[in-house]
Amino acid sequence: MFNLSHPKLVTLAASEGYADVADFLEDHAQGSTVPAICMAPDCDHTADLEPDQRAGFCEVCGRPTMKSGLVIAGMI
Ligand SMILES: [Zn+2]
Q1: CA 23, CA 16: separation in Å to the nearest integer?
Q2: Backbone angles phi and psi of 43, in degrees to 5
Q3: Which residues neighbour ligand 1 (ion) by CB within 5 Å?
Q4: Residues near 2 by Cβ (< 8 Å), separated by ≥ 6?
Q5: Domain boundaries, the chain
Q6: How far is the CA of 1 from the centre of ligand 1 (A)?
Q7: CB neighbourhood size of 45 (10 A)
Q8: Is 24 helix (H, G, I), strand (E, B) or coil?
Q9: Of 9, 36, 33, 31, residue with least CA distance to 20
Q10: According to the 3-state scheme, what is the secondary structure of 35-64?
Q11: Closest CA to 40 of 9, 63, 56
Q12: Ligand 1 geometric centre to CA of 67 (Å)
């Protein structure tokens, strides 16, 4: 079951110019790097990281809270 309504996923897709999360995931499903977002409540930093990244270092808030969009959606 994919989770396309997670608020961070919606924010990430919007920051990449997608109004529809499903379109965002479809375009990045096969990428060698994919957009990731910081999961901290007070931080929405985004970066391109490995598709299976779930504990990447956030350059803004300094926490290991970067997750790829595919991970947030439950695709990986
Ligand atoms: Zn952060």
Answers
A1: 11
A2: -140, 135
A3: 38, 40, 43, 45, 58, 60-61
A4: 25, 73, 74, 75
A5: 7-73
A6: 27
A7: 16
A8: helix
A9: 9
A10: EEEECCCCCCCEEEECCCCCCECCCCCCCC
A11: 63
A12: 10
How far does the centroid of ligand 1 lie from the alpha carbon of residue 66, in Å?
7
Q: Are 53 and 68 in contact (CB under 8 A)?
A: yes
SS3 category, 19:
coil
CA distance linking residue 41 with residue 75, whole number of Å: 22
The whole-model pTM stands at 0.95
pLDDT 10s digit of each residue in the chain, 76 long? Answer: 788 999 999 999 999 999 999 999 999 999 999 999 999 999 999 999 999 999 999 999 999 999 999 999 999 9
